[in-house]
Amino acid sequence: MIQELKDNYGHLFENDLLNEINQVGTFKEVPEGFKMISIGDYVKAMPLLISGAIKILREDNDGDELLLYFLEKGDTCAMTLTCCLGQTKSEIKAIAETDAKLIMIPIQKMEEWSAKYKSWRNFVFESYHNRLNEMLETIDSIAFLKMDERLLKYLNEKARVSEDGTIRNTHQEIAYELHTSRVVISRLLKKLENLGEIKLHRNYITLLK
Amino acid sequence: MIQELKDNYGHLFENDLLNEINQVGTFKEVPEGFKMISIGDYVKAMPLLISGAIKILREDNDGDELLLYFLEKGDTCAMTLTCCLGQTKSEIKAIAETDAKLIMIPIQKMEEWSAKYKSWRNFVFESYHNRLNEMLETIDSIAFLKMDERLLKYLNEKARVSEDGTIRNTHQEIAYELHTSRVVISRLLKKLENLGEIKLHRNYITLLK
DNA sequence: AAAATAATGTAACCCTTGTTACACAAATTA
DNA sequence: TAATTTGTGTAACAAGGGTTACATTATTTT
What we know:
The structure is a homodimer.
Chain A: H1 2-9, H2 15-24, E1 26-30, E2 35-37, E3 45-51, E4 54-59, E5 65-71, H3 78-86, E6 93-96, E7 100-106, H4 108-116, H5 118-144, H6 147-161, E8 166-167, H7 171-178, H8 182-194, E9 198-201, E10 204-207
Antiparallel strand pairs in A: 1-7, 2-6, 3-7, 4-5, 4-6, 8-10, 9-10
The structure holds a DNA duplex.
Keywords (chains A, B): DNA-binding, Transcription, Transcription regulation
InterPro entries (chains A, B): cNMP-bd_dom, cNMP-bd_dom_sf, Env_Response_Regulators, HTH_CRP, RmlC-like_jellyroll, WH-like_DNA-bd_sf, WH_DNA-bd_sf
GO molecular function (chains A, B): DNA binding; DNA-binding transcription factor activity
């Protein structure tokens, strides 16, 4: 494990901290689609992402959902951070977008390291900063963009975090994550295809530009 | 100043920290409507809110805006926190919703206090947590609610932070903050009035329920 | 191979929201 | 007080996106 830890976090943390992480952290692999956190869960460990991508979703009372953002390697979950510290329930849902590798840190260490390591504090603060900015991006999309623009942006993000640049989702799945209906997505996808932006296939989509 | 500091932050911070804040912080009063931060600004001090309310807005490239949330007494601005630490530009706009009193902390102290005071770290973490949750609330509203529901929620928040419980805004101003048009707001306000939820006047609105 | 299931394409329709236009009333200024 | 500006009410229409319904094609199961 130490090697993957060094590769991804070596430039962020001093050696003492890396060694501590190596000692108390547990390595974990999750398959694509694995549900890592549900709304209402109490979180008892903090993940450091080594590889893969995790999608973070919001859900309303009717079960309608909305994609907020993706976590990628080098990221951690700011929501988890606060949940751990405050002992509050999770407000979001986390699902592995691809197969992913992570190091899980027991929450007791967080307070200790925050006092001890400047690099840890900076990491936590920067993590919050990134997450807040991603939330702003999400707000920009739903507040200021029309559905076709949102869709194109969504497809680009999906392609970025996927292994091979293709989007392996059905129209229905896309509709759920954008909180709209399958018919609307099919309609707009066809429009984007006619514009030469994408190529549609059964179960997957490729970007052309 | 020490009294107002104690009243609002005494239960959060230990005495040593309160004394330090008292020494290095500068007291500031701003009138309603005062523009405290614009998008792109570099922020050089962190505010601790003593009284009044600050509204935090997002703006897109066309100058369209959207109300994100209000800061009230006991709050600080998480965005500012990260801007200070990371030396990055502000992503949001902050305007005094009411007359407000604040204590401004020079940013150099933040790193120092984060190492020194557990209560400061907790305050900062909790502040991030609150802001993330408020962003989620905002996302819920724009993603899952219809405009009439958003409007009613907006009116309730406005009334909460105002001195006397009335909403002193024109329909045009409300339209800007919800990122819609004046005609839509007038239409929905009239509907809410007919439902007995509110009473309309020129330049202000009162809630009935 | 036949039947069932899953994914997509598309038409027709409706509702919410956005737009344009204009009337009228209240407040401010000349 | 007359003229102008500001705020509100409302009608008529347009556009985006949500809904229902059904056809077609690909894939999986029997």
